[in-house]
Specification:
205 residues, alpha/beta, Rossmann fold, Arc Repressor Mutant, subunit A, 2 domains, four-stranded parallel β-sheet, 4 strands
C-alpha cells in the first residue's frame, strides 16, 4: 500500500519517472543493476535481504545511485548502519509528500538529507562526548564477538593469544577470524588490520 501511494505521487510529477519496484531486498539489487535508476527509495525491513545489506550491495556495483531510506525505524543503530552502508538520506514513513519530494530531489543531486526528527537525533548524538571504548556501531555487519576479535587482531594478538584471552578454543577463534575476513571482504589478516585501525580499533593492551 505504501509503495502504491509513492507510485501515484511520483507519477503525478513531470520531473520524475517511476521505473520499477521490488518487494524484497534481493529483487531490489537485481533491478537496480538492470535499470540503473538515479534514486532508489529503500525500506529497511525487507524479506530475502534487509534494506541495509541491499543498499551496500547495490552501491558496490553502482556507486552513482542515490539511495534514500524511507522506513518506520528511527533508532540510532538503524540510522548509522544505513549511513555506513552508503545511504544518502533517511526519512520516516510519516513524512509528508513535500518532504519526500524534496528529499528525492536532494539525493538525486548528490546531497545528504534527513527528516527533521532524524536530523535532531544526529545533532544530539554528535553533540555528546563519545566514550573511549570501542564503538559498537563500527562494522555493523559483525557480531559483538567478531568485533571484539577484530579489535584484538588489530592490537597485534595472534589466534592462540586471542583464544587464551577470551577463553575460547583455537578452532572457535579461527572460525570467527574467517567470518570477519569474509564479512569485511578482505583477503587476509593484514588488510583486516588496516580496515580496523582506520576505524580506530587496535587500542586494547
Amino acid at each position: 500500500m505504501f509503495r502504491n501511494g509513492l507510485h501515484l505521487l511520483l507519477d503525478s510529477l513531470p520531473q520524475m519517472k517511476w521505473v520499477g519496484e521490488a518487494g524484497d531486498g534481493q529483487s531490489a539489487t537485481m533491478l537496480a543493476l538492470e535499470l540503473q535508476p538515479d534514486v532508489i527509495l529503500m525500506d529497511i525491513q525487507l524479506p530475502e535481504m534487509n534494506g541495509i545489506d541491499a543498499t551496500r550491495q547495490i552501491l558496490r556495483d553502482s556507486p552513482h545511485i542515490g539511495i534514500l531510506m524511507v522506513t518506520m525505524y528511527e533508532d540510532d543503530d538503524m540510522v548509522f548502519s544505513a549511513m555506513q552502508a552508503g545511504a544518502r538520506g533517511y526519512l520516516l514513513k510519516g513524512s509528508d509528500q513535500d518532504e519526500i519530494i524534496r528529499a528525492i530531489q536532494a539525493v538525486s543531486e548528490g546531497e545528504a538529507i534527513f527528516s527533521a526528527s532524524i536530523a535532531r537525533r544526529l545533532v544530539s548524538y554528535f553533540g555528546k562526548p563519545q566514550p573511549s571504548a570501542v564503538p559498537t556501531l563500527l562494522f555493523p555487519e559483525l557480531t559483538e564477538r567478531e568485533r571484539e576479535i577484530l579489535d584484538l587482531i588489530a592490537s597485534g594478538y595472534n589466534n592462540t593469544e586471542i583464544a587464551e584471552r577470551l577463553v575460547l578454543s583455537g578452532k572457535t577463534v579461527r572460525n570467527h577470524v574467517s567470518n570477519v575476513l569474509s564479512k569485511l571482504q578482505v583477503s587476509d589478516r593484514a588488510h583486516a588490520i588496516i580496515r580496523a585501525r582506520e576505524a580506530g580499533l587496535g587500542t586494547i593492551k
